[in-house]
Amino acid sequence: QVQLVESGGGLVQPGGSLRLSCAASGRTFSFTRYPMGWFRQAPGKEREFVAVISWSGSTRYYTDSVKGRFTISRDNAKNTVYLQMNSLKPEDTAVYYCNTEDSISRLRKGDMDYWGAGTLVTVSS
Question: How far is CA 73 from CA 6, 20, 56, 98, in A?
């Protein structure tokens, strides 16, 4: 089973930037074979899809509310996926999680059983 450790969250003012990281590991997990995604859960709301990247990095999808502001990337040599978040808004406040699945379509659904602890992003003045 894959282990996921998110980091990089914090308190930032509106308009600011943060870069989140997610390190993936597992005895039988081959990072370079799987798409990776970011999700978030705001207080009192359900977890939602944010962004996904294919195993090669050539395909990326974003939810509409973050397009043009967030960028997902990955470093296959480090088994790490990143989420660069710019022009942050108060409505971006949430716990951010990464995850993986066999395909992009399944990953975007977010129905995975295992989730890491996440990293909290708070956008406030």
Answer: 14, 10, 10, 12
Interatomic CA distance for residues 50 and 84, integer angstroms: 12
Three-class HEC string of 21-89: EEEEECCCCCHHHCCEEEEEECCCCCCEEEEEECCCCCCEEECHHHCCCEEEEEECCCCEEEEEECCCC
Q: Give tens-digit pLDDT for 73-102.
A: 999 999 999 999 999 999 999 999 999 999
Cα separation, 26 vs 114, in Å, equals: 13
**For the segment 13-52, what is each residue's pLDDT rounded down to a tens digit?**
999 999 999 999 988 888 989 999 999 999 999 999 999 9
Radius of gyration of the chain measured on its C-alpha atoms: 13
Using alpha carbons, select from 47, 22, 50 the residue that is nearest to residue 34: 22
Q: Residue 8: name the closest of 62, 65, 64, 70 by CA.
A: 70
